Every structure is written in C-alpha cells, then in structure tokens.
Amino acid sequence: MPIDVEDGRSLRSGFLAHAARTPDTPALVVRGVSHSYGALDQRARRLATVLSAGGSRRVERVAVFASRSEVAYAGTLGALYAGAAYVPLNPRFPVERTRAMLRRAGVDAIIADAAAAAQLPDVLEGVERPACIITPDGGVRDDRAEGIGADVRGADWIGADALARVEPLVRLPGVLSDDVAYLLFTSGTTGEPKGIAVTHANVLHCLDAAAQRYVLGSDDRATQTFDLTFDLAVFDLFVPWNAGASIYVPQPNELLAPVRFVQRHALTLWFSVPSVPALAMRRTMLTPGAMPSLRYSLFCGEPLPESTARAWAAAAPASTLDNLYGPTELTIACFAHTWRAPNTSSTDRDPPHVVAHAIVPIGRPLPGLGALVVDDTLAAVADGAVGELLVCGPQTVPGYWRDEARTAERFVDLAVSPTRTRRFYRTGDRVRRTLTGDYVYCGRTDDQVKVLGHRVELGEIESRLLDQPGVVQAAAVAWPVEDARALGIVAFVTTDATPAPSRDALAVMLPDYMVPSRIVLLDEMPLNGNGKIDRARLSALLGTTGVGAVG
Questions:
Q1: pLDDT value at position 532?
Q2: Please, what is the end-to-end C-alpha distance for the chain in angstroms?
C-alpha cells in the first residue's frame, strides 16, 4: 500500500503535516534568512512539478548538488515530493569524485544551487546527462549556461525565471515503505565510492525512536551542522521538522565558534561530531553555564572523549547529553547512551565503564534493534569479551547500491534461535558489552577510520596513490590520533626512483579530509610476520626523525 497517501507515512510526511497546519512557523534559518514551512513547501512543490513533469512521469533519483543553502533543503524536499530518492552531492568535493557518484547513481535530474551550478559544465563532462537540470538561484555564467542548455542530449534546463512560473504540484506521487528515500556514497576500498540506499521504512524507524527519546515542539530550535552527504544530516533535518521545530544552519566559520552560535539563536538542540566541542574546549570557549538554552546535546560520528562530555555538560547544565552510534548501513544512529558526569561527592557514582579509556560508551541498541558481539567465525563471545559488533532490525538497509558481492560480504544471515534467522550487518567495529548492558567501542577490525567524523577507507587513499606514476607501494595511516579520534591522514610510498606524488595530485580526486597531510617517501615498506605492510611500525616512524616528506 502506498504510504504518505491517506493514513500512511514516508520521510516527507512530517514536514507536509506542519506545512499544512502551521505554514507561517519558521522551518529553516540559513544565512540569516528565515523560511517558513509554507514557503519552503511551495518551493519544494514547484521543484516537484518540474521533476515529475506535472505528475506525468515518475523520477527515481534526484541529485541535490548544493550545500548549506535554501536550495539544498528545498531540493531535498522537492525530490521527496516527486516520489524520488534524493542523492546529495557536495560542491566542495573534487569534480572527478562527483562525476563518479553521478555515474553510479544514474540520476534522472540534478538540482544545483548557485555555487554548484557554476561547476556543472565540468562535472557533467563525460557523464550521461539526466533528463532535467534545475538551477533555482542561477550561478551559471551566461557563456556557460548556453552550453548546459544546448549540450544535454535532450535534457530540460530550468532556471530561476522558468521555475517561478511553474505551478506547485498539488497531488504528490505515492511511495512505498521499501522505496529508497535517499542514496549516499561513502569511501570505498577499491577507490570508488560505494553507494548505500536507505528506504523510507529504514529511516522512519530511526526517526520514531528519536521522537520518543527527544521530545520537541514548535518552540524548539535545532542545529543543522552535518553536510547533506553525511547521513547524520537526515536526523538534523527530519527530527526537528517532524516536530514542527525550526532548523538553524551554521556556515563553516560559525562551526568554529559553536557556543556563540547557540547563544545568538537560543538553540535548544545541538548535534555535531565530537571534534566541534573538542575544538571549543581547547579554545576555552566552554565556560560553565555558557549555553543555558540547550535542552539536548547530541554527538555522533566518532568517539566522544569523557573530558569533552564533561566540559560541554558544564557549559550546558540544563541539557541531556547523548552519545549516538551508527554506520550509514544501519540508518543514522542505532545505539544511544545518556552520559552523566560522575558525582565524586557521592557513593552513587556512574559505573566504571563510563570512564573506561576516557571514552563515553556507545550505549545500547534503539528499541526494535538487536545486537551480537562475535569472533572471527561469527560465533558469539562471552559478555565482557571484545569482538565485532553485528546489528539487525528494521534500520538495516537492503545492501550496497548495485553491488551484490559487497552486500553478501557485509550482510549475513545468522540463527538467533533454533527456528529463527535474522539478517545482520557486520559493522567492522570492535566492541565489548559491559555487565550493565552498555556497549563500549574498542576500535576497528579493518583499515577503516573516522577523520573528523567522516568515514574513510584507507584502501581508497592507497588505491589513488598506486595510480600515480612511479608508485610501487602505498600505505595510509590515521595521524595524529587524539582521544581515539583521527584528526588526519599520513601516507607512505615507495617508488621506482621517481619523485613521490604530491598532495595536489590527490586533491583532484579525494575530498579534503581524505588528502594526506604528508606523503612520506621510504626506501622500503616495513612488513609484519605475515608479509603484510606493518602499519603500527609506520605510525611509529612518525614519531622519529629522519623521515622525509613531500607535498
């Protein structure tokens, strides 16, 4: 049965409901401009009219090529209104990476804001053009706009003037619960980004769990700190919109001063990677009581140091502080832990696991989800033992986009009783379950790392290095690592007597957070007993002298 029709629901349902009930309430504040639910709804409906040719065709995937602009948010809603999945693309990513995502996604249309639209002629070079290109606020120079319009192999190009004349779509196409709501791309070991398709049912389960945990209303003001290419942005948008709250979008420079942003807008919900408050703490911004308006403070994407949690909690004394956990394959967040500062003046202190290794636990599965901790043979380990975390339940995505082999590798069917089998996702994260039932993060089983909250496959960086002329061997390591969080990457290479590649050569293929801060040239790679590159010894080299670097 279609959802979002009659009494059904989809990812767009919450916003639609509040646009109908309270159209004048602010839904979005970006670059100092407030956009009401009604105004944003009408702009999304105009986009949906163009995308669906007035309802006469069904689009499946729409690229939203925009960042922290009104077009980014109206475009996301417009794609959903048209019954399509949205595919967020980051204008700050290298052109080649954006092309690769477009090829993999096979989008029917592109919505681009002004900054991204200027890149379209380069991004679309060599890519099969979509049926429709929409640039709602311009951004294409006249001499290049003609090229977009004339060389799209029959595609419609809709600019700002044409969009303003379009009638808003009244009857929205229905969607099914297992239809894809959005398609994201993450770092891949082969050098190509891998796609993760998330269904409406997947995301609604997470949003419903969040609504029970965080009670918001029309008076609440929440942040939107994550790039739309980061799945945590789905929480940023739709948890507040489902409650009729307002979203405030900090620009990159404002994220450097989070306390000031909270104070200026009297925000009630903050959500970011832990690196943001860690930076504020180092800059002595987290003074006690500095953020009295906050009701909820949420962190996800990388380990949360207990020292950071303590400093933020003191600065936001009325706030509940939660540490969330969840890979994209398990839809936004699948574990949560409410952190409470140890009370040293009382015998009623938090259990020792709260401060184990100075990292806040990832907590427990959200309602309706199940977890196992297993060894290399996928057999369950005893409580307290370290193993790989496997998770099952309605937030488990169908698999990797058009990649059956990788899907079969990471999604496994395991018996949970003599008569029942469940489908689990292998997270690759090492955890242990404490006696209180909380889970503690203990590292990775593979070469994946988080850099400032972004998921990075070191193998992708190494693959790009091996593509460079003269490179014989390549290895990348997380460096430096602070409070279990990687702040950057350092690469090591051996060559056939040619110079080592430069960082600039990688910057045209990789986003900035994946470009190594240093590329170290070695005579030979250190190997371990199995004949593999010894990454521990490479990391140790960074603390010694006599190691050359380029770039």
A1: 66
A2: 57
Q: What is the average pLDDT score of the chain? A: 87
Helix-helix angle 13-21:232-242, to 10 degrees: 30
Ramachandran angles phi, psi of 108, nearest 5°: -90, -20
Per-residue pLDDT tens over the stretch 290-323: 999 999 999 999 889 898 999 999 999 999 999 9
Amino acid at 424: F
Q: Report CA-CA distances (Å) from 530 to 54, 341, 395, 534, 535.
A: 61, 44, 38, 9, 13
Show Cβ contacts of residue 495 under 8 Å, excluding neighbours closer than 6 positions: 470, 471, 472, 521
Q: CB–CB of 70/112 below 8 Å?
A: no
State the CB neighbour count (10 A cutoff) for residue 538: 21
Q: For residue 45, give every residue at least 6 positions away whose Cβ sits within 8 Å of its Cβ, in sequence order, or none.
A: 78, 81, 168, 169, 170
Q: Which two tokens stand for residue 139?
A: 């951004």
CA atoms of 416 and 400, how far apart (whole Å): 24
For 87-120, the DSSP string reads: EEE-TTS-HHHHHHHHHHHT-SEEEE-HHHHTTH
Q: Are 116 and 139 in contact (CB under 8 A)?
A: yes
pLDDT tens digits, residue range 429-443? 999 999 889 999 988
DSSP string, 134-191: E-TT--S-HHHHHHHHHSSTT-EEE-HHHHHTSPPP-SPPPB-TTSEEEEEEE--TTS
Binned at pLDDT 50, 70 and 90, residue 494 comes out as confident
The span from the CA of 343 to the CA of 340, in Å, is: 9
Burial of 372 (0-12, 13-18, 19+ CB in 10 A): buried
pLDDT of residue 547: 44
3-state SS assignment for residue 484? coil
- Alpha carbons 219 and 224: distance in angstroms, whole number: 16
HSE, side-chain direction, 13 A CA sphere, residue 102 = 27
pTM here?
0.85
CB neighbours of residue 43 within 10 Å: 22
What whole-number distance in Å separates Cα of residue 524 and Cα of residue 121? 43
DSSP 184-251: EEE--TTSS-EEEEEEHHHHHHHHHHHHHHS---TT-EEE--S-TTSTHHHHHHHHHHHTT-EEEE--
CA 181/CA 109 separation, integer angstroms: 15
Rounded distance between C-alpha atoms, residue 50 and residue 59, angstroms: 10
Say how far apart CA 101 and CA 228 lie, in whole Å: 14
Please choose, from the candidates 4, 155, 26, 188, the residue with its C-alpha nearest in 3D space to the C-alpha of residue 81. Answer: 4
Please give the Cα distance from 169 to 46 (Å, whole number).
6
**Which strands, in side-by-side order, build the sheet including 489-495?**
471-478, 489-495, 518-521, 549-550
Distances in Å between the Cα of 248 and the Cα atoms of 14, 23, 176 are 18, 17, 31
Residue 412 structure tokens? 């496994």
